Amino acid sequence: MRGLSAIAWTTVQEYLRDKLLYGGAIVGLLLVAGSTLLSRLTVGDPDRVMLDLGLGAVQFFNTVAAVFLGIGLIGREMDRRTVHLILAKPMPRSRLILGKYLGLSLTLALNVIVLGLPLILMLVMLDVPVTLSLWQAVALIYAETAVVMCVALLCSTFTTATLGAIFTLAFYVIGHSVTYVRAFADKLEGVARTAVKGFTYLYPDLEYFNLKGHVPYHQTLAASDFTLVLGYAGAYMACLLFAATVIFERRDFV
Fold first, then answer.
1. Is a pLDDT exceeding 60 seen at residue 84?
2. I need a labelling partner for 233 at 20 to 30 A (CA). Which of 88, 98, 150, 185 fits?
């Protein structure tokens, strides 16, 4: 346990010095702050526009951080040749994977707080209700990026950073298009329909984590549904981490 926490804390410290994280956070903060001005200049419900833009900025920049920091979790150690020093210690490889995962999870949690807190403060200053649906939306944004991060971590164990980024971004796009793929499958027949349908039920549907459209109308998920979505995310994260561990355990470093 001590070795796991040491790896996690080292990972947090390493990424807190990363220019990509700070650059994304600054741009995200500017967009979150700019959402207030844009909401007042657009036609329609300004509160809804501000919530859509603000939550969209939080989701986008946290996802970008999850992808581009996640694919470097193992690759960065390999490029620096420090992976040999770490694995030379009497420590299972799975502990390195879990420690890196926990460290980046904490970093992404801080990123969500940095991006989400200004949005909430602006809502309070403008007398816009901060409802339970908003907190649920932010929590599920983090859950979604945690799943995406696990995909990036998995890719970092067997491929290059460039291919890992492509695979992870493709995973994200397809994950938000599962409903459309399912509708397309309904137009097919026979084995093709069964195969595509089966794929859509095995593939994680990232739209389950998208509550941005519910927040302006104060539509909250029931506690049981919210817990079910978190469990859905946890199940996929466990599978992805297990796969990453198996691949990393069998990989040879020369």
1. no
2. 185
